[in-house]
Amino acid sequence: MPSQRLANVASSPVRDLLALIERPEVISFAGGLPAPELFDVEGWRAAFDTVLSGAGARRHLQYAPTEGDLRLRGHIAARTTRRGLPTRAEDLLVTTGSQQGLTLVAAALLDPGATVVVEEPTYLAALQCFSMAGARIVPVPSDEQGVDPAALAEVFERERPELLYLVPTFANPTGRTLGRARRERVAELAERYGVWIVEDDPYGELRYRGAALEPVASLSERVIYLGSLSKIGAPGLRLGWVRTPRELRSALVVAKQAADLHTSTIDQAAAAEYLSVADLDAHVRGLCAAYRERRDTMLGLLPRVLPDGAVWSDPDGGMFVWVTLPGGVDTARVLPVALRHDVAFVPGAPFFAGRAEPATLRLSFSSTSPERISEGMRRLGEAVLSAGVAA
Amino acid sequence: MPSQRLANVASSPVRDLLALIERPEVISFAGGLPAPELFDVEGWRAAFDTVLSGAGARRHLQYAPTEGDLRLRGHIAARTTRRGLPTRAEDLLVTTGSQQGLTLVAAALLDPGATVVVEEPTYLAALQCFSMAGARIVPVPSDEQGVDPAALAEVFERERPELLYLVPTFANPTGRTLGRARRERVAELAERYGVWIVEDDPYGELRYRGAALEPVASLSERVIYLGSLSKIGAPGLRLGWVRTPRELRSALVVAKQAADLHTSTIDQAAAAEYLSVADLDAHVRGLCAAYRERRDTMLGLLPRVLPDGAVWSDPDGGMFVWVTLPGGVDTARVLPVALRHDVAFVPGAPFFAGRAEPATLRLSFSSTSPERISEGMRRLGEAVLSAGVAA
């Protein structure tokens, strides 16, 4: 009864899993959630109160332009420019989270049967989104430096795709970052083959060591850059944005109209107020300090709790560590054992568009305190041991 | 460069028009906007303040389940049940405005080439949305009692469509309401031919005379009912909902995940709080009293300002009056004259999926005070006269 294009798309196993592990005794490394104890609740409360108390209050409750709140777009443009990507307010389309940005790009660019190239593994909900658009997804291998440019060149030559989807900085699920030289190479390839790149960058500001890399979008006009307040502000507001190449702007605005007319006026106004008043840079520094400690705790314990032969990524930022267990285990079969030990992770297979590597799993360190991470790592070690995983 | 399916979809002429007429001296009957001076600003301010001050504040800034806030869904379910449509919280999926409900239904039910039947004329953004899904749209004539059941039966027999889209109560753009006998007939036809009905009901509570009719959804299981807070609360929050038949539920939830993960957590929490504390029924009675006066003012003046031969709908509620001018005029050519007279309306042609009737136009009375309506009607009469329209 559902449409063909939906029949091939499963509900997100991550979201289904999150629903299962709401027992408070479970230490969950499964979600990709920011730490709620670090939310600037008072800052947000004050921002909503200000915009609903002032002269513009009625305007903030009314229908609004599809492109988004101009004051908010001005703040985001200035922030994006400071991060090395020159941007004007009119280049930005505010979206209902950057997830919506993906859907709009799919609607605006992909006809059924279009080819989308992704790094392997990649963000699950992006795979869902492209599948729903009826696209054919072609994976390209990645390593510790991100997607492999030589393999990408081959695929571009062979497949002539419409779109390349990348999370170049602190990727979901791997935590990996595309290196500087590769960024240049990927941008060149996109130009040469006339492929649009979607650069999905929700984590880029959460860097715990090393110097920031320039966005791929600063290297080519063929990049659609997606940003978000979810990881640096609060995800509950569902505020993201698309920095749109000029020739795609009107198509994306039409897609946005059809999707939800516009993003919440009041949330946009509150975010504009927040960005005027709060020191988001200081807030992000605080997030980075806390997440760095969590990352270090997790990475410090992994060698002690996992069996010989296990390997994992060493992320410079973001929220995720990507683990491969030894001995040809399927982590989907380790998960029930882990849940009996009151610890959770996400099995890696759903993040693959092509041939899955079932021995992989994703751990998130962002929403768990260092103490709970220590206890959770101990439980994970026990679970892996009791599931019989060995090199 | 944009996808084929988007290449056929224009930006909404209504939204484009709204951008043009922001000059304060223009009296606009063009938008379908609720009156901002009637927003319960203090009630909404207090609701946001409460949910961001309480123990749950951090939760209201975090990611949340795709289906929506359970407290909000409980309130909506109770309200829907009181209106004659028995509904449980778990039947509801909260959407980012009811516009998103349309997009999700299209994603979940329509493959490219699927057939969608609409009453003629109908809501413009629904046409956009079905076009973007690659559907073939087949219009069915309507009259003062709404869609014509005999014509509908013929089209169902001939076309075997997937979906029928209706705004059965105080329709956009006509203001017309589908009569009771026709509701039963339409529900029967949907059952017999296995067609899904989308009942889009944003205006149903804004009734100025006569008794409420039961929702079509109360007459058949084959109805996907869309509701919204936009017209009775505040549109800026972008809060709508889909009452989903059981067999479509999981498909719609998957489509919602891909669209934006979930609707703004904080807006949902504030709305749940508002519905707990405020007397929305009393607020709606206030809206109805104000809008009734505006409707009466407009309908009282139309015979005086329009030339002989003009006809218009006589809506029992909602926001719109649908006018047909005499003499074979194209209202798209009257609009520039009207704008020179500082008055605006929406030409009717874009609301037609089939052969347009260019002599039609849509007037909205909801967001203009009775005094301004009087002045605006005077200007409209002058504009129509100076454009040379005559019987």
From TrEMBL, chains A, B:
The keyword Transferase applies. Pfam families: Aminotran_1_2. InterPro entries: Aminotransferase_I/II_large, Class-I_PLP-dep_aminotransf, PyrdxlP-dep_Trfase, PyrdxlP-dep_Trfase_major, PyrdxlP-dep_Trfase_small. The keyword Transferase applies. Keywords: Aminotransferase, Pyridoxal phosphate, Transferase. Residues 59-380 form the Aminotransferase class I/classII large domain. Its cofactor is pyridoxal 5'-phosphate. One of its GO terms (biological process) is alpha-amino acid metabolic process. GO terms for molecular function: pyridoxal phosphate binding; transaminase activity. It comes from the Bacteria. Belongs to the class-I pyridoxal-phosphate-dependent aminotransferase family. Homodimer. This is 2-aminoadipate transaminase. It comes from Actinoplanes regularis.
